[in-house]
Input
Amino acid sequence: MTTNYSICLLPGDGIGPEIIAEGRKVLDAVGAKHGLSFTYSEALLGGCAIDATGTALPDETLAAAQASDAVLLAAVGGPKWDTTDPAKPRPEQGLLGIRKALGLYANLRPVRIFKALADASALKPEVIDGVDMLIVRELTGGLYFGRRERFYDEEGCGAGGAAGQRAYDTLEYSEYEIERIVRHAFDTARKRSCRVHSIDKANVLESSRLWREVAHRVAADYPDVEIVDMLVDNAAMQLINNPAQFDVAVTENMFGDILSDEASMLAGSLGMLASASLGDGVALYEPSHGSAPDIAGKGIANPLAQILSVEMMLRYSFDKSEAADDIARAVEAVLDEGWRTGDIKQVETPADKLIGTVQMGDLVVSHL
Ligand code: IPM
Ligand code: MG
Output
């Protein structure tokens, strides 16, 4: 008996279409082995949607996502649409808009080290030894979604007196929002090594003091899980100094954005970092990296973060852990054999092991 799932593909911009094709290829191949089949719909998000419709998140795209069993997103954005003019649409609005509209408050970003890539990391092998962490980033609140404004300030009050433009963004959280993400982190930690780092800036920010209070209230329900409070600046340092101390790290939206890019360097490349965005309905899976416009269309982008996002989809949306494990093993095998895209190339990588996007996808499929 074959189980069928409908997948909404959002290739987006830049390298997006190239890498999502590899994700789909791997999904179909692993599905064939495990009695799963997939029906695809494809929709516009980001810059391509702005070009076609004038908006980064067209209604049809949201409808297609909502009608699917899971959404696979590649990447959005590019210099073509870069603007600081608040009146102009930006590709990132599509991404933030779909996260908000689908209620995807929990963004899971696993940082794992593939043995073969240990020396592709900018850090010494002994520093990244034992690293296996999960960043749980709050995704629908905080600084990304708070009240903001830009205005002309006649008085220039408090800022040296000169009149000029002024702008603000606000970092706001409700107890409810903090509690549900922290609970998510604790539930996940129970299935891992039972340690949660709650990362905040409670020595300065009121929103962080509320965060810390709520985190401890939640922690009381999990006596088997250790809670460690850590200030975000210290966390940025500890990620480089002693990354193996982390199991689950839960944090505010923007702190999580920044720390997850930093943490990707433990794994050697942002091209290896997958993510799952979960809420109470349909979930979305995407690489943590951007659309890499500089290498778009060249066939050299690393599709592994996209492929590992497919792995997360099988695990979290469809509860198919055997199929997911197969993908993880296949990726590991390909890396063990020494195959590399440019971003994870090592000094000792011979020229004939340096491959492109499609070959990398094909190799993963051949190991399934
Ligand atoms: C990410 C990205 C996005 C974010 C950008 C593209 C809006 O950096 O998914 O981490 O900041 O969330
Ligand atoms: Mg980011």
Summary: The chain has a mean pLDDT of 95. The longest strand covers residues 3-12.
